[in-house]
Amino acid sequence: MRRTLLASVLLAVALSLLPGCGFHRRGALVMPAGLEPIRVVSNTEYSPVATGVERALRRQGIAIADAAASDVAILNIGRERFGQGPIMAENRSRTQEYVATYRVTIRLRAADGTIVVPEQTVSLDREYVVDTRLPIGTPAEQDLLEEELRRDMVDAVLRRIDAALR
């Protein structure tokens, strides 16, 4: 009973100190007038990032325009590039550490044609280690890493738009 009470008190104290350190819970993306409804357009057919951004915007209550609608804001997601390269090699010139890079170019235009977010590149990097003695599982791990980067890219694009609108 005492432990539970002590843990509750410590948790309450810790939570009361969070706002003082600058921590704030992330809120929903708020679109100003003229940016709703929004259409998400991609240069890549079946883009997982465009699909993910559209789903995230819907979850936040932002109206999504269909492809036939005119006079709507357009979020253009273009030039998705995924690449990887070596960082470090071991003594026998076998690569052990790699970096995976995922880059997406975005631009947001309001319904009246003004550029709200100028064209810019959002880039994510992940470093990972490959055990050269155990090559089994490496392709599956790379697929998982690529999927995680795509998921993180959706959040990064939304944060970039949110920062530009503030």
TrEMBL record:
InterPro entries linked: LPS_assembly_LptE (IPR007485)
Domain of life: Bacteria
Keywords, in A-Z order: Cell outer membrane, Lipoprotein, Membrane, Palmitate, Signal
Keyword tRNA processing assigned: no
GO BP annotations, alphabetical order: Gram-negative-bacterium-type cell outer membrane assembly; lipopolysaccharide transport
A GO cellular-component term linked to this record: cell outer membrane
Pfam families in alphabetical order: LptE (PF04390)
Signal peptide segment: none
GO molecular function, one term: lipopolysaccharide binding
Role according to the record: Together with LptD, is involved in the assembly of lipopolysaccharide (LPS) at the surface of the outer membrane. Required for the proper assembly of LptD. Binds LPS and may serve as the LPS recognition site at the outer membrane.
Membership in a protein family: Belongs to the LptE lipoprotein family.
Subunit structure as annotated in this protein's UniProt entry: Component of the lipopolysaccharide transport and assembly complex. Interacts with LptD.
Protein name (database record): LPS-assembly lipoprotein LptE
